[in-house]
Design brief:
This protein is an alpha+beta fold. Helices cover 16% and strands 48% of the residues.
């Protein structure tokens, strides 16, 4: 399972807010496609950051990242 997180950065590049978006996705490719869509909906520029493997955007003077992270899935105790 993969979750998209919207991360807001201050002027120095430090994280000031982090929140999950949408429900988790089964496939990394699906989550990345939706992360790109979320970045494209912001009112400023957006693009892909190869070094961080995430999408970035600007909105109302804010810097944002849309990061896809794997979620830990609870293993069945009986397995």
């Amino acid at each position: 399972m993969f979750q998209i997180f919207r991360i807001e950065l201050d002027d120095e590049g430090q994280v000031i807010a982090r929140r999950p978006l949408q429900p988790p996705y089964d496939l990394w490719d699906d989550a990345m496609a939706l992360a790109e869509f979320d970045a494209s909906r912001c009112d400023g520029d957006y693009g892909y950051d190869e070094a961080r493997d995430c999408w970035w955007a600007s909105e109302a003077g804010r810097s944002l990242r849309f990061v896809v992270e794997p979620l830990m899935v609870a293993m069945d105790a009986a397995a």
